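Help wanted!
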Amino acid sequence: MTDDFFLRSLGLIIMAGAVFSVAAGWIRMPTIVAYMIAGLVIGPLTGLVEISHALELISEIGIALLLFIVGLELSLDKVRDVGKVAVVAGIGQVVFTAVIGCALCLVLGFSLIESAFLATALTFSSTVVVVKLLDEKHEMDTLYGRIAVGIFLVQDLVAIVMLTFLAGLGTGAVDPQTAALGMAKAFAGVAALLVLVLVAARWVLPAPFAWAARTPETNVIWSLTWCFLIVLAAELFGLSLEIGAFLAGLSLAQLPYTNDLRRRVHPLMNFFIAVFFVSLGVNMELSAAFDNAGTVALLSLFVIIGNPFIFIWIILRMGYGERTSFFTAVTVAQISEFSFILVAMGVRAGLIAPSILSITALVGLVTITVSAYMILYNDPLYRLVKSTGLLSLFGSPAVEAEPRDSHRPHGHFIVVGLNSLGRELVRLLGSRGERVLAVDTDPHKLTGVDCEILLGDAGDPAVLAEAGLPGARMLVSALTIEETNDLLAYRCREAGIPCAVNVMDLSATENLLAMDVCFMLVPKVDGVSAQDVELRKLGVLSP
Amino acid sequence: MIGVGVIMLAAALACALSRLTRVPIIPLYLLAGWLLWLTGLEAPGDSATEGLQLGLAVLVFLAGAELNPQRIVTDRRRAALLSLVPMLVTGGCVLLWLRLQGTALQPALYLAVALAGSSTVVAIRQLRQLRQTREPFGRLVISVQLLQDFFLVGVLVFVAALPQGWLEALTALGTSSLLLAAALVLQTKAVPWLLAKTHLGDETLLMLMLALLFAFGTAATALGLPLVVGAFVAGLSISRFPANGLLRVQLAALGDFFFAIFFVTLGYLAGLPAADTLTKALGLAFIILVLRPLVLTVLARGLGLSVRPAVESSLLLGQAGELGLVIGLVGLGNGSLSAPDFSLLAVVTAITMMLTPFVATDATTSWLLHHLPHRRPPAPGSLHGHVLMLGYGAAGRWVLRSLQEHGCEVFVVDDDPGVIAHLEANGVPCLRGDGSDPYVLAAAGADAARVVLCSMRRSADAAKVLRVLGGQVPVIVRVFETWEAEHVRRLGGVAVLNSSAAARRFLEWFDASNYRCASRTGV
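Answered by r_m:
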């Protein structure tokens, strides 16, 4: 505790991030933007914070965890139904945006290498921003939501290739032969690492992780350890930590407990990535960006308007309707955290001037802010654009029947906790033809249960959302943990869903009644009537 | 990044070992840190100090967040006495022993404070493994632990300021009470208002709560108090429901990660103590493992607990706590403790924590109950043809009423003095004691009963009853889990599955309720 410089700086970052994210919530601004503005305030504007080595390490962990989670999301099942459109639109948009963007940058007077970096930065959209906004709108499972996620996953893969490319350039090679050698080494490194993680995913990881998954804490620690080990392996191969973390996530993505793991790691990532984004703001060289205000404005307009139009054109050609194409296209009107990483790598490698990072940061700030509002208000925006007749220029069909989304359960019972009570509830409800979804933290308790299952901590709002709480008929908790039962009752009251709770101790009833629980299962008392039956059989009680 | 990777690898191995051996994770994290230290690896060093600082702040914040006033049992006087007296006795004995061993007053005082409390993490984990968190004595143990943490932080404030003089130490206590008052206002007014009015997203909520940690930490430092005091008080401000519930999942992820980072790093930085401190360590371990449980048992009996819960509580609290390590770290930071003293503290903490799962077991309790001198129940009476209720519990009054309405003669055995007093006041024949104890069973005329109704909290107790009675008398056992019912049936008892009955009762209610119609129409 002798050196409190680190904690003081971290404290300022967290406090500023928190204050700005609360303020951002009032105007529905994405937290990422709020963090960057917070960084601007405590960094360049007031000089309160300087980024130390330890804070850089925290930022690096944040990036690693972010890419680890992106890797965890890359499950083939999730993109199968939108695979074709995701691949075509994802790659098509990258090519079109990169080519047009590069031409635009060259016209604006940037060198070829700077134009290449800027154009690449403009091609990628922010998975985190969009996924978070879709989640807030509860539209992740809509058709356009699934297509958007699929596209981002494809873009993530392209970004990994770009990172690899930069890793090759980052070797400091100046002549083409050495550059090619560096790139070959980087690609060889990726190939080796990819083989390593795929072999591990197929033959090494499943058994130990199945064992670890029975204890959530062990599962989290093992997964994070795996992530950091692969990051270290990536460094050993001369690759970036981003590649390592992404591949580590990818190697675990095929395991059955990934969703639960992703939800558990998410809060940790939120903390570290907040430090990263605030630090990004702290490190922003604003003067260079404002010196290029016209350039920033033009590039931002290109991302906000040009990117969506390219997308609409591609997705319409894939046979999707006008509305779906528009809604999907709106999600790509911003640049990504990958863009900052890519450009930062270029600056670190000495290939481009630091001012490019400032320009990218300001374009990011502008486009993320504007696109967030575009996504949140996509429906009125669609009606507005449609009324101008602009969409008809793409030759799109006028009417579209949106397919009904049937992914999230509806009108079902959620049974939490598969102890003997939970299992009996599932059995009895199932035998009456009710749709039941069972939730538990222990994968072994979920095996052999004759209903839909979900692995996770029911106290986690993400788990309840995935369980379809807003559309459920009722939530029944068989858990014997009072704190979780109180929380479930609270969440159900917030969602307006009836809730029945297991009560092991009658002293807990007062709290539960205050939270409008509609029924309390009291096994100790309910067992008395069953005991009476046995006593009658023995002749102790008269029939 | 290499440092983080190495620390996490060590933590992962400790996790695996903890799963395999059922030893609590904290001592194994320390062990992993010591192994790193023994290998002479320098890799963790580049980030160890900062990791330790951040881990410390988060750890103490989480400890404060556990201190939910609603978790403290209603009998707060008993919980407070069971917290304070053993702490004072243990601290006094540690101080005396260390002074006898030639340790200077200041480090001896720090070590006494650090070793005075027990481990909340270990006790709660052990209660969960024994499935006793919701039992009265389990609630009491949790209350005692939480109050101990609270008292320890207060003592830390005092001891940290003591080198500057008594007046300064008392002033520090007064200053910290200002922080405490601010936290209580937040806990009861501001945080509930914020949650009700703002509907913040999880991420913003987490950031805001962490901002509280750093805000209180900064305030504490500005007031001349240790940063950990600010962190603890910040945790206290979010310890009440629903704030603690809403943040539980978010904080759990942080807790898992920082627990690992903190304790592995702690082991790595502390290193192992020199061999010549072995006598000191053994003496300290003896005080914590033997003397404290003894004091606790006597005190608990004096406060009205039956023998069994008194012994069980004492065994569960027989270890040094994680907050003690935090106190030691503060002492190390301000120069009051030397590095060897801190190593000694870490070793004693690890040893006592490791032994808890092997000491606090049903087998040890039974052995002690068998060998400890205590008052035997009266000689067998003339009971015959009665219904014997072993354990009164939550449903006792319904069972009793039903039996009495059918004209049955009923005799009750329970270990809760409150229950026995209530029954005696109502003229119900009863006996206070452990229903699985053969002496008690004999005194209650179990072998001459018409039927024995067993609803004691452990299925192992029911198994003992079944073995003692050997099929002479029908024994009905109410259990919750299916596997418990199968076990009872194998031993010749009649199992009543409470969970199955509750599920059927739920469906009866649902069919008769409005929800059935409402849900069909999708309302």
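OP: Thanks! One thing I noticed: The CA atoms of residues 72 and 143 of chain B lie 5 Å apart.
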